[in-house]
Amino acid sequence: MVQTDVPTYGKAAQRVDVLLIWAAGCLRAVQLAVWLPVPLIGGLRMYRLPGLVLAGYLLTVAWAALFFLRAGRVRRMDHRWVYADVLVALLGLLLVPAACATSCATGWQHFVLPPAMGAAIVVAGFAPRWPAILGVGLLVAGYLVGSFRELAAGPDGSGSVIVNAVSLLGFAVLAAVVAGYLRSSAAQLDDATEAALAAGAREAAAQARFDERTRQYDALHRTVLTTLSMIARGRLDHRQDQVRALAQRDADYLRGLVTAGSGGPAANLATALAGVVRDKQALGLHVHSQFHDLSDRLPEDVEQALTNAVSEALTNVTKHAGTDEAWLTAVGGDGGVTLRVVDRGRGFRPETTATGRGLMRDLRHGVIEVGGRVAIDSAPEQGTMVEVSWRP
Fold this sequence. Notes:
Blueprint: H1 11-33, H2 37-40, H3 50-74, H4 79-99, H5 113-126, H6 129-146, H7 148-153, H8 155-222, H9 224-232, H10 241-259, H11 267-282, E1 286-292, H12 300-321, E2 325-333, E3 336-343, H13 362-369, E4 373-378, E5 384-390
Parallel strand pairs: 1-2
Antiparallel strand pairs: 2-3, 3-5, 4-5
């Protein structure tokens, strides 16, 4: 018997299992409905204990409804329930023929035979290989044992019993082959879908890296390369203080890019921070910057809020600290980032500062809006530290 082991569940595989569950459920309903007219036409007289047979039929219907409704709700077949379904069918194959007044193993009185074929189909289609083989074997053996009187009656009776037994086995084999083929096709579809998504993600990542390299090249071309080219062509005199200051700002900008990493996903934030440092230095504020482990890409709104917060903090150093020197550190980790802007200026008392001041209002508002945190530590004549952090 061909039967695959328990499948891995991708989206296509799940859809296949749901299809098989409802197909088996519809088949079982038809198999049980065939016997419904029998009590209405007086067919119960063919049994020794008609009330017991009718109760057994109703219990079989109730079991089938519970079995398939549960499987449909959880969208899979629990193997323990499948084995219980085989046991219910096996009991019917052994007990119902004994309840018949005459031989009935090949007649309509043996109402368990059609649903027993359904149970063989279910165990072959949903159970692992060896339990499926054992389950189908028990059902075939149970039918043959229950049909002992027909087998002993002669060629006519035994021929019909053998045909039914072979049909029971054949339907099980067919179910195993069809279920295995559908699951194999679904697994291939899931693998192909996953491979396509992975390829798309790799292509998008490669394009993002290319775009980032292009953006960084443009930034370098506007800053460091332009300065070096002008010095090389003699248009700037490297001995002048103004040119040396320009070279220092470009060196700080380049250092910010290098210390951010090797052009990884977080280069956007590093480039933005390096640009802020260069802009502030152009206005006369000397900023010492160090970036570490910025290895995770941040959401665009978070990156913008953090960049604005650093710019605002450095602007306040220029306006209020009474110093022309500041320190900026950016440290990544756990998918987030922590930024610190420190100066050794005159400081202030945060608890007494008016809420309208930019450092207290604009800086906090933008960062908190994207889920970040802001801490300000300052005291008169002790300088100021602004810490901005964000975690996913």
